[in-house]
Design a protein that fits this description.
This protein has one domain. Helices cover 39% and strands 13% of the residues. It contains four helices and three strands; from the N terminus they run H-H-E-H-E-H-E. It has a three-stranded antiparallel sheet with strand order 2-1-3. It binds zinc ion. Zinc ion binds next to loops.
């Protein structure tokens, strides 16, 4: 549960369809969950050096408020050029973690 949008995005990506909206929904849901849990700030985590593209890695460790994150939607990273499934670039695997 909760990661259904991510699973859907994977399916779409593998079949060559547009997956960006599912990744967006995933992050929006996640941010709302944190908000409901009383969390104020989140930190961006990438797959790490060597495993994330340079565009994504620029955001590694960035801390922002949930309001900012919902407003600016830094994830999925627009310039992401990761080709996770060998089909299409841009499958951004970055995520938010609660900044406590
Ligand atoms: Zn990314």
């Amino acid at each position: 549960m909760g990661e259904s949008h991510y699973d859907k995005a994977i399916e779409l990506c593998k079949s060559g369809e547009n997956f960006i909206n599912e990744l967006k929904k995933r992050h929006i849901e996640e941010l709302h969950r944190y908000k409901e849990a009383g969390i104020k700030k989140v930190e961006i985590l990438t797959a790490g050096p060597g495993n994330s593209c340079e565009e994504c890695y620029k955001l590694h460790g960035k801390v922002l408020t949930i309001e900012e994150a919902l407003k600016t939607m830094p994830l999925p990273v627009r310039g992401c050029n990761m080709d996770v499934f060998g089909v299409e670039k841009g499958f951004c695997r970055c995520g938010y973690v609660a900044d406590l």
